[in-house]
Amino acid sequence: AYSHNDEVFGTDKHYTSGTALIWIQNNEHENPYVDFTKSIVNAIPFHKLNSSNNFNTSFLLQQRIITPDTKNLLADDLPYAGTLELEAGLYEWNNKSFHHYSLKFGLVGESSGAEIVQDEFHKIVGVKEYKGWSNQLDDKAIGTIGYDYGELSYRKDFKEGYKFDWFNGFSADP
Fold it and tell me: Engineered SS bond to 37: which of 78, 90, 107, 114, CB 3.0-4.6 Å?
């Protein structure tokens, strides 16, 4: 899980908040979803998974909130918007690199619940309610296909089995 909110730093504009719950399946047991997901990824032209790598499936539920530069809507600024998304993914990895293939569906607009989440958070931290949510984007379905690649650049092993890994990576998520 992760959550971030720029109000903590005294600003509340543009990409203002994001919250996600993430589940990654343990690869120690056979899982029919892994085989199903691998068959979909292997259907991509000019690409085949490396069967000697490890594989994990993942699910992500995410909400993002975007607000204009000010608390009121301006003609040349970003609109009020929220997204609510569900992602299914496959990680292919070894000790040196990983690939993450994902398919995400969701919606943008009032049904994302962004206005309610922001208003309730602002009540908790004592910030005035934003008045521009009546101008938010209309409800629409959204979807993307994503790809991430990361390569291990540095690893440090610590006592008691803890590790620190630094990956440099690339993402394509239109």
Answer: 90
